[in-house]
Amino acid sequence: MIAGTPQQCFDALTDYAAIVEWQTAIKACEVRELDSAGRGKHVFWELDAKVKSVSYTLAYTYEEPSWIGYKLVEGDISDIQGEYTFENRDDETTLATFSLKIDPGIWVPGKVVELLSGQVMRSSLDELKTHVEAI
Which residues of the chain have a pLDDT value below 70? Predict the structure, then answer.
């Protein structure tokens, strides 16, 4: 649970210029194309994947303020798809969930991919919680 509104969570994750300041795995982020509402449609990311940097461009779709979805356009990996959902609770908190599917494009044991995906999802949500609650 995040002590904040779905809109605050949505705004934090779509403020691509500021996200590098609070999402520690992100080395660079650049909006390459905007949608009709002025939000990032195609967004380039460079992440510190511990072993090496990984970069890719994602295509985003939105249902403001409750959902953000994305899929791979191009990059160093074969496929990535994910979504965030934000569910408002009566006590001014938000239940934030994040799902992620990654195909690194090279053989990696399934358990390793699951562990990495789980770590990425946990750290992303933990850092979102810390950021929104500090606003």
Answer: 50-51, 108-113, 115-116
Instruction: Report domain extents, the chain.
Output: 6-134
User: Under a CB-based contact definition with an 8 Å cutoff, are residues 17 and 23 in contact?
Assistant: no
C-alpha–C-alpha distance, residues 16 and 43, integer Å: 8
- Upstream peptide bond of 65 is cis (omega within 30 degrees of 0): yes
Q: What is the pLDDT of residue 113?
A: 63
The predicted model scores a pTM of 0.91
Does domain 6-134 fall under CATH 3.10.20.30? My reply is no
**Predicted pLDDT at 49:** 72
Q: State how far the Cα of 42 lies from the Cα of 31, in Å rounded to an integer.
A: 6
| Residue partners of 25: CB distance under 8 A and separation at least 6 | 47, 48, 49, 120, 123
What is the per-residue pLDDT for 68? Answer: 98
Q: Which helix (H) or strand (E) holds 112?
A: helix 110-134
